[in-house]
Every structure is written in C-alpha cells, then in structure tokens.
C-alpha cells in the first residue's frame, strides 16, 4: 500500500536546509560548465559587447588570462569564437584556414598559459570568416553548398587541431561533416582530439547578440533555415543525433538551451552519449534584461537555469555566465 497524507508529508524533507541538501537529486558544479569567449585583434583589449552586457571581446593576451581564471575557478573547458577583421573576411572564408589566424593564436596562447589544465573547444563553421555571414560556401542564389563546404570545414578543423584544440565543435549543420572531420583527424594523427557536434542546432532567433559579437550579424544575407533545424521538430533532432554518433561524435550538443530542454531530455533518454546544451547569447541577454528590469534576482535566475540543464540530463552547459556562476558556487 502506498503511503498517503498524513503519513506522507512531502514537506517533511523540505523543512530545513540540511535536509534539502541531503535530498537534492541533481548537482551543479563548476566542472559542468564550458565558458564561451570572444577573441579580437590587438593587445590589452577589453571591448564590451552592447547586446551582451557583462561580456567582452578580449585580445589574445586577455583570452589567456580568462583561461587561467577559468582553470582557477574549476571550469574545465573554454570555447573560442573569433571576431575576424573585416579585411580578412571573404566569400570563401579562406581566413579560417590560415594557421596564424586569430583563433589559432588564441589556442596557442591558452596552451602556453595553462598547459593541459584546461580544455580548448573550437567552433567549426565559416560564418566568422565569410563576407556574407553564412556558415559555408554559397552558390549564386545564396544557398550553402553542402559537400564543398564540408571539404573546407575539414581543413578548418585540422588547422585548429594542429594549433592545439582539444575539442572540435562543428556548428555548421552540414550533412556528413562529422565523419569527414573524424577521418581527417585520424589521418592527421589527432586520435585524441574530440568532436562535440552541434547535432541538434535550431534556426533560432536567440543568436542575435552572438552575431554582433563575432561581427557577422550585419553581414548576414538571408537566413540559415536551409541548414539549421526547424524549431517545430523533435524526431528530426533525434535523427541528427543518431547520425552524428554513427559518424564518430564523442558528444552531442543541443542548441539553444532553455527553450529546447525537451530535446535534451529526449536525446538523453534515447542515447548513451554525453549531451551538452548551449545556453546561447539571446538567453543570456534575456536573463540580464530581466534582472535589470527588476523582474528577478540575477544570481538566482542564473543558478536556477543552469540547474535546469542538469536536471534535464545535460552532462554540461556552455554558458556566458560560467565564470560568474562558478564564483557563486565557490563562495
Ligand atoms: C556559428 C555559431 C553561432 C552560434 C554558435 N556558433 C551562430 C549562428 O549559427 O548563427 C550561436 C551562439 C550564441 O548565440 O551564443 N555557426
């Protein structure tokens, strides 16, 4: 016989702090976080991003300092995104293949500063390097050509791995890119370089501030709906994840985060792989705006949303709040 009121009082275990701690089902630690950072040219540069209050673009020296800060806070991994100079952007995004580009210099600086104390995740897609803001090579009608783009993404991934990246994260949503990148990494001797695929990445309205941050927003022609997923779809996300696992992804990502926790839960239920979520720029901005408007207490909003990712089944979360949240957790 199952217990019922008054023998069963669910408030009993909630009645004091120690008891709530004892019965807590989900834990969140700094080790669950990946901190995305924006890199820009120069030295000593700390350039605030208006649409992401509290987030800056840092020059390579500043990135190395942030990486040291992350390691000291117990954050195991950072993610790097370059704001490429306008005169280095082109139709074919060739700067992505330059071994001395901003991304590669940042990877090396972080490695020099932190050794193996922190993981370096790098985004594979051409949008920070193209003059049209699309993630790949376009035809005359602006359609992103799949197979030609994959060939370039492979070279971009190898360029990043050669510079010292630990996790290659293709965010482009081309078909077949995980297999092609995995094969090239194996051939290139990068056996232990991981692939975290942006497996279920939606064509979302929440990416606006990111596009400001990398400088692709104003350039973008059209939208990304021919490769990023329709927000209405779930089955398709599961197929994307299955495909990327079969192609050799070590972990998969769902993106955006909070509005897509149902997808995280479905993926976690179906597959035995590490699942990450990206709490994207628009989500960060929304929390900051809510706090600034007095609609909620900032730290509480941050910690509650991060816990929600863990509860839904995430192994970890990419979040611009990473350092702040880790500081809160470390007391
Ligand atoms: C690039 C990329 C995007 C994000 C991560 N990698 C933007 C896009 O697809 O347009 C978004 C991250 C964020 O909004 O925080 N392919």
Automatic annotation (TrEMBL):
Its EC number is 4.2.1.24. GO terms for biological process: protoporphyrinogen IX biosynthetic process. The active site is at residues 201, 255. GO terms for cellular component: cytosol. The keyword Metal-binding applies. The keyword Zinc does not apply. Mg(2+) binds at residue 240. It comes from the Bacteria. Pathway: Porphyrin-containing compound metabolism; protoporphyrin-IX biosynthesis; coproporphyrinogen-III from 5-aminolevulinate: step 1/4. PROSITE patterns: D_ALA_DEHYDRATASE. CDD domains: ALAD_PBGS_aspartate_rich. Keywords: Heme biosynthesis, Lyase, Magnesium, Metal-binding, Porphyrin biosynthesis. Homooctamer. This is Delta-aminolevulinic acid dehydratase. The lineage of its organism: Bacteria, Pseudomonadati, Pseudomonadota, Alphaproteobacteria, Sphingomonadales. The gene is hemB.
């Amino acid at each position: 016989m199952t217990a019922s009121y008054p023998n069963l009082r669910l408030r009993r275990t909630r009645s004091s702090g120690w008891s709530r701690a004892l019965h807590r089902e989900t834990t969140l630690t700094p080790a669950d976080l990946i901190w995305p950072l924006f890199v820009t040219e120069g030295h000593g540069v700390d350039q605030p991003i208006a649409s992401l209050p509290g987030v800056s673009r840092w020059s390579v020296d500043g990135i190395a300092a942030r990486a040291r800060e992350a390691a000291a806070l117990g954050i195991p991994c950072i993610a790097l995104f370059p704001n490429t100079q306008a005169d280095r952007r082109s139709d074919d995004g060739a700067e992505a293949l330059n071994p001395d580009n901003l991304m590669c210099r940042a990877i090396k600086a972080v490695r020099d500063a932190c050794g193996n104390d922190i993981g370096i995740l790098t985004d594979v897609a051409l949008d920070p390097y193209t003059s049209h803001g699309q993630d790949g090579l376009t035809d005359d009608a602006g359609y992103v050509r799949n197979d030609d783009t994959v060939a370039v993404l492979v070279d971009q991934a190898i360029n990043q791995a050669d510079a010292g990246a630990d996790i290659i994260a293709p965010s482009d949503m081309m078909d077949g890119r995980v297999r092609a990148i995995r094969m090239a990494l194996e051939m290139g001797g990068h056996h232990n370089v991981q692939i975290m695929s942006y497996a279920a990445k939606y064509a979302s309205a929440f990416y606006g501030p990111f596009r400001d941050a990398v400088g692709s927003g104003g350039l973008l022609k059209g939208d990304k709906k021919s490769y990023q997923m329709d927000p209405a779809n779930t089955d398709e996300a599961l197929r994307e994840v299955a495909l990327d696992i079969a192609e050799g992804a070590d972990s998969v990502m769902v993106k955006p985060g909070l509005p897509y926790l149902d997808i995280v839960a479905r993926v976690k239920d179906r597959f035995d792989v590490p699942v990450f979520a990206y709490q994207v720029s628009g989500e960060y901005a929304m929390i900051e705006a809510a706090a600034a408007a007095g609609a909620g207490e900032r730290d509480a909003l941050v910690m509650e949303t991060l816990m929600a990712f863990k509860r839904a089944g995430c192994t970890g979360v990419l979040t611009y709040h990473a350092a702040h949240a880790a500081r809160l957790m470390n007391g």
